[in-house]
């Protein structure tokens, strides 16, 4: 429904307003009951919360979406370096903290921007980390955003519980789970999947990273991290989850991350870049609700 | 009974000669791998070793040593560790042994993690050990502080820091070094893991995760560089199966690298 429908009375508060259907101006309006029930409220457009890094670059550059990346790895914030934003600072204004922009439509926030030296350690227990995450969500002036992507540390602890709790009002579209092929990784990832189920986060799918390496000299493929138990593919089959794609190892990925350059721009024809493109294309439309199984 | 009470009073770490933390700021660099391989190398050198796995959300040690899911028993002094070998040279404690379902997620906030780690440090009857290795999750948070607080009464020899060669990894490990300095933990040295990959087909070496970062970090921070461990699919496969890589592949360059690191570590502990 349009925010002010054509048959609305004068002084209509707007269908998305908290006063929709309830203000005195609504009396006699044909839409009053619908608005009062809340059904007319437009779904919050801002928060499609994924967990990934490169996907967002594609989404922002290719699909021209407005993307925000929130780094909640409080102890090990890698995003500033990977995005080429080391040394950038966060500015405060009347409307809150300004995120750091990679491009006009790609904003980033990380505790990395608040540390004065690359040697600074964030030696914080859970409650303090939670407080920081809350501030990131509450005080950062993100503006209008199509996709908020949240990068998390490994584990199923304070950061994960807090981000889920704090975003519950906005609604989380889902999680993208990253694994490498070997069982030692899958073993932990299954726990992460259980976590998502417990906190009722839909799983958009799984990405298998570091999935094979093609030798640049002889072009033979080696499984450096061997999928001894069938890799992400078997796990996804067993758990009835979508396998979004597999990204092969490419030394140029590491180099791009270290140099803060966009791997997708630097080496667009790499098999890894192609893999990322395919992953985003398969999910570029409004994400379907993954099953909560 | 009287003897046991005396042992209890002295604490379960009383007969542990050396305690070494295995740390990294970064996830996925191979802390558990390096902990496992160091433990095996030390055992092959005739030492009695313990591994305390305080990665409560992602305990990898049980699988890497193929100890399955045995029951953890109690004795007068506390919990009996799980032994990886019949000769009881390698003792392990991990939350992995306490979970009924191995896929069960440990969704705990800091205080609960801190409490269990306190128990792991104080209430496991390690007995006589030459070296207790403590495998940690990435970061500088509850688990790390809990380990240090509970080890306060006992000497911590220091920490081995694991990184991969990339700047994104060493960037986090620098913070871990600061953590060690702030908490007065001696840095025994830096290990650079995943340091180059030699193609088994043509022997070309590819620096998949960049090159040299570990050594540079050691120079930058005035730390000892313990050595580099290459990316080796045979090592990865051994860990998958819980096989003793050092016994299976003694002629590999990875074996040489790990043995040298273990020997250097032992020398600095015994010095």
Automatic annotation (TrEMBL), chain A:
Its keywords, alphabetically, are:
4Fe-4S, ATP-binding, Cytoplasm, Iron, Iron-sulfur, Metal-binding, Nucleotide-binding
Q: What is its main location?
A: cytoplasm
How is the cofactor bound here? Binds 4 [4Fe-4S] clusters per heterotetramer. Contains two stable clusters in the N-termini of NUBP1 and two labile, bridging clusters between subunits of the NUBP1-NUBP2 heterotetramer.
Record lineage:
Eukaryota, Metazoa, Chordata, Craniata, Vertebrata
Q: Gene Ontology terms, cellular component aspect?
A: cytosol; nucleus
What is the native source organism of this protein? Answer: Cyprinus carpio (Common carp)
GO BP: iron-sulfur cluster assembly
In alphabetical order, the GO MF annotations are:
4 iron, 4 sulfur cluster binding; ATP binding; ATP-dependent FeS chaperone activity; metal ion binding
Where does the record place it? Cytoplasm; Nucleus
Question: Where is the stretch described as Disordered?
Answer: 1-20
> What PANTHER family does the entry give?
CYTOSOLIC FE-S CLUSTER ASSEMBLY FACTOR NUBP1, NUCLEOTIDE-BINDING PROTEIN NBP35 YEAST -RELATED
- Name recorded for this polypeptide: NUBP iron-sulfur cluster assembly factor 1, cytosolic
Q: Which cofactor does it need?
A: [4Fe-4S] cluster
Annotated [4Fe-4S] cluster 1 binding sites: 12, 26, 29, 35
Subunit-level organization: Heterotetramer of 2 NUBP1 and 2 NUBP2 chains.
Q: Which InterPro entries match?
A: Mrp-like_CS, Mrp/NBP35_ATP-bd, NUBP1/Nbp35, P-loop_NTPase, YlxH/NBP35
Question: Which family does the similarity line name?
Answer: Belongs to the Mrp/NBP35 ATP-binding proteins family. NUBP1/NBP35 subfamily.
- Residues annotated to bind [4Fe-4S] cluster 2: 215, 218
Summary of the function given for this chain in its UniProt record: Component of the cytosolic iron-sulfur (Fe/S) protein assembly (CIA) machinery. Required for maturation of extramitochondrial Fe-S proteins. The NUBP1-NUBP2 heterotetramer forms a Fe-S scaffold complex, mediating the de novo assembly of an Fe-S cluster and its transfer to target apoproteins. Implicated in the regulation of centrosome duplication. Negatively regulates cilium formation and structure.
Task: Report the Pfam families cross-referenced here.
Answer: ParA
Q: Which domain of life is it from?
A: Eukaryota
UniProtKB/TrEMBL annotation, chain B:
Identify the cofactor(s).
[4Fe-4S] cluster
Q: Which domain of life is it from?
A: Eukaryota
What Pfam families does the entry give? ParA
Return the InterPro entries for the record: Mrp-like_CS (IPR000808), Mrp/NBP35_ATP-bd (IPR019591), NUBP2/Cfd1_eukaryotes (IPR028600), P-loop_NTPase (IPR027417), YlxH/NBP35 (IPR033756)
Q: Per the record, GO CC terms?
A: axoneme; centriole; cytosol; nucleus
Q: How does it assemble?
A: Heterotetramer of 2 NUBP1 and 2 NUBP2 chains. Interacts with KIFC1. Interacts with NUBP1.
**Protein name per its UniProtKB record:** NUBP iron-sulfur cluster assembly factor 2, cytosolic
Organism, by scientific name, is: Cyprinus carpio (Common carp)
- Lineage, uppermost ranks: Eukaryota, Metazoa, Chordata, Craniata, Vertebrata
Q: Which gene encodes it?
A: NUBP2
